[in-house]
Amino acid sequence: MTEFEISLKQHFGITDAKELKSVASLFEPEILKKGDLLLETGKKCDKLCFIQSGFLRVFLETDNKQVTQWISSQGYFVTDLSGFIFGEPSRWMIEALTDTHIYTINKSQYKKINTVVPQWPELEKQFIIHCFTTLENRIFSHLSMTAEERYQLFFQHNKELFNQVPLQYIASMLGMTPETFSRIRKKQQL
Predict the structure, then answer these.
(1) Element of type H or E holding 189
(2) Separation of alpha carbons 68 and 129, rounded Å
(3) Main-chain phi, psi angles of 72, to 5 degrees
(4) Of the four, 57, 59, 173, 188, which is 20 to 30 A from 73 by CA?
(5) Roughly what angle, to the nearest 10 degrees, separates helices 3-12 and 17-25?
(6) Number of helical (H) and strand (E) elements in the chain, helices listed first
(7) d(C-alpha 109, C-alpha 126), whole Å
(8) Within 10 A of 130 (CB to CB), how many other CB atoms are there?
């Protein structure tokens, strides 16, 4: 079983080895160089991507500044979900923060998973519920936690990001100015 197949099994719960290989074969490997855009605002998003290695940043440009929505790392899926599912123009940009190896599946290939994995509707539902609760937890933290508490929680679960991506992107994702982020970071390191 390949590393990618193991990841698919973990994320979706596909247990049959033949089904797992069939689903994995629908994805195409792709390499993005640091700074490459996977998706631009206003474009159609026709890919769901799995990050094998590297980092992708989901962000938007508004009022002459960039606001980071999410930083995805190894082992995560990334897409503009409303664009991928409903065909709406993307609100987001997705940029490679490092050289990044991904596996992509386009929408037509994604629809074929139903024919390969009979229990796919239930597995997909569980995956989307997981994604939704992750988003819900993030919203909850922004509404109920102080900036320092958000920093601590994020740091506990994402230590690897702090040495590998620009800290201004993490600050933006946590809803802080770079100055606030820096002040909290210095306080935590004491």
Answers:
(1) helix 178-189
(2) 23
(3) -100, 140
(4) 188
(5) 110
(6) 8, 8
(7) 20
(8) 12
Q: Quick one: which of 159, 138, 148 has its CA closest to 185?
A: 148
* Side-chain-side CA neighbours of residue 97 (13 Å): 24
Q: What Cα–Cα distance (Å) separates residue 104 from each residue in 153, 171, 189?
A: 30, 28, 39
What is the pLDDT tens value at each position of the chain, 190 positions in all? 888 899 889 888 898 999 999 999 999 999 999 999 999 999 999 999 999 999 999 999 988 899 999 999 998 999 999 999 999 999 999 999 999 999 999 999 999 999 999 999 999 899 889 888 989 999 999 999 999 999 999 999 998 899 999 999 999 999 999 999 999 999 988 7
Put simply, whether the predicted model's pTM sits higher than 0.85 gets the answer: yes
Determine contact, residues 58/109, Cβ cutoff 8 Å.
no
Cβ count near 148 (within 10 Å): 14
